Amino acid sequence: MGIRITDTTMTATRSGHTATRGANGRWSVTGHPGRAFTRNQAVTALTLAEALATNPPPADRMWWHINDWRAELDLPPLSPTTHPARDAASSAKTPAAPRHTPQPATSTR
């Protein structure tokens, strides 16, 4: 989990989210379309993305931080048990093994 920061871009290594500084000095962050962030808010948004990319279990203390970071960005809190990434992971079904269908015996004359 890490963030590479330059003067004009930030890249979250695990989640792949990025932030780009605009001409007005405000930052746009992937995953937050239409919002303009300060530099510190962009770092917070990418830190949040990195934390969520780890898919922490419901009882993990990371959720305290996740919801604090969300509050800093004026986002509503997430429930650890209904996190979208967790829902996607738990609902992903392993394809069922193909069933063997007996074939009628063929005679060899």
Automatic annotation (TrEMBL):
Residues 1-29, 74-109 are annotated as: Disordered. It comes from the Bacteria. Residues 1-18 have a biased composition (Polar residues). This is Uncharacterized protein. The lineage of its organism: Bacteria, Bacillati, Actinomycetota, Actinomycetes, Streptosporangiales.
